[in-house]
Amino acid sequence: MAEQKKLQPDLAFVKGVMEAGGDTVNKCYQCATCSVVCPLSTDESPFPRKEMLWAQWGLASKVAGDADVWLCHQCGDCTKYCPRGARPGDVLGAIRANAIKYYATPRALADMLGTSGGMWGAVVAAAVLWFIVAAIWAQITGEAFPFPEGSIEFHKYLSVIPIDAVMLPIVGLISFVCYKAITAFWADISEGANMPRSFNGTYPTPPLGILVSNYIVPAVKEIIAHERFKKCGQTAERTKGHQWVLIAFIILFIVTIIVMVYADILGGLLGMEGFHTPLALWNPVKIAANIGAFLLIAGIWMIKSMRDAKTEEGVLKSSQQDWNLIWLIFAVGVTGVGAEIFRLVGIKLIAYPVYTLHLACVLILFLSLPYTKFAHLIYRTTAYVHEKWAQDVRAGKAGFGLEKPVGTDEH
Amino acid sequence: MSKNIGVYIYTGDGIKEAVDIDKLIEVATSEMSASVAKADDNLYSPAGIEMVKKDVETEGLNAVVIAGVSPRYEFDGFKFDGVYVEKVGMRELVVWSHKIADDDENADTKKEHVQELAEDYIRMAVTRAQKAEMPVPDKMENPSDRILVIGGGITGMTAAIEAAEAGYKAMIVEREAQLGGFAAKLRKQVPLGPDYSSLAPRVADELISKVNSNPNIEVKLATEIARIANVPGEYRVSLKDAGTKSEWDAPVPLTDEEKLDENGNELSAEDQKKKYDEKNEGRQEYTEVDPNAEVFGAVVVASGWKPYVPQEGEFERLSWGNPNVVTNVQFEELAKNGKIVRPSDGKEVKSVAFIQSPGGKDDDADFPYASHVTNLVSLKQAKYVREDYPEDGKAYIFYQHMRTPGQYEYFYKGLQDDAGIYLTKGAVTEVKDNGQGGLNVSVENTLLGDSISVDVDMVVLATGMVPTTRDEAVVNLAYRQGPAFKELELFGGYCDSNFICFPYETRRTGIYAAGGVHRSMTIEEAIEDAAGAALKAIQCLKAASEGHAVHPRTWDHDYPDFYFQRCTQCKRCTEECPFGALDDDEKGTPKPNPTRCRRCGTCMGACPERIIGFKDYNIDVIGSMIKAIEVPDDDEDKLRMVVFACENDAYPCLDMAAAKGYWWSPLVRVIPVRCLGSVNVAWIKDAMSSGMDGALLLGCRFGDDYQCHFVKGSELANRRMENVAETLNSLGMEPERVKLAQVAIDEYDKVPEIINNFVDEVMAMGPNPFKGW
Question: By the 8 A CB rule, do B331 and B349 touch?
Answer without folding.
Answer: no
